[in-house]
Amino acid sequence: MMKKKIFLFLILSLSIATTVGAASSSKTSGNNIISQRSGGSATVKEAFSVPKGWGHVKLCMKNHPDHPVRVSLTHSGSNKLYIEALVIAPHDTVTWKSTDQGFSDGLRSGDYILQWRGSDYKVDGETWE
């Protein structure tokens, strides 16, 4: 029953992500909270949710184009900024772990906005957990 609730929660979250961002594909499997490709403009916002009791989060972010991007992560309910202007070099992948960033209690449950900024260039990024 709990897996069904989490699955439905993830489906709803992905529906929100599709309407907020310009994800070219969104999918989730197993225990992932995010697995999506972002792009289409110079600034792209993607939404996802961290279920209650989830704990620590590890985000892998890949920048596909020949230009750097800046990524930020904000908790929607509190506007708490967890990632501020993290630069990802061209064709690079960065792994961000809440445990490595001093969030010993993990991330708050709830909705998050992951924002990609490509400056003068279109974003083409990928995020998975």
Structural notes for this entry:
- The chain is 15% helix and 43% strand.
- A hairpin with an 8-residue loop joins β1 and β2.
- It has one helix at 2-20; strands at residues 23-26, 35-39, 43-50, 58-63, 69-75, 81-88, 93-97, 110-117, 124-128.
- The protein is mainly β and 129 residues long.
- The protein starts with a helix and ends with a strand.
Would you kindly provide a brief summary of this structure?
With 129 residues, the chain is mainly β. The chain has one helix spanning 2-20; strands spanning 23-26, 35-39, 43-50, 58-63, 69-75, 81-88, 93-97, 110-117, 124-128.
The end-to-end distance, rounded to whole angstroms, is 23 Å
The number of E-state strands comes to 9
Question: Strand portion, in percent?
Answer: 35-45%
Average of per-residue pLDDT values: 80
- Global Rg: 14 Å
Please state how the strands of the largest beta sheet are arranged side by side: 1-2-9-4-7
Q: Given the C-alpha coordinates, what overall shape results? A: globular
Strand pairing plus helix content: what structural class? mainly beta
- Percent of residues in helices comes to 10-25%
What's the helix-strand series? HEEEEEEEEE
Count of DSSP H/I helices: 1
Regions with little confidence, pLDDT below 50 for 5+ residues: 5-29
The description of the largest β-sheet is: 5 strands, antiparallel
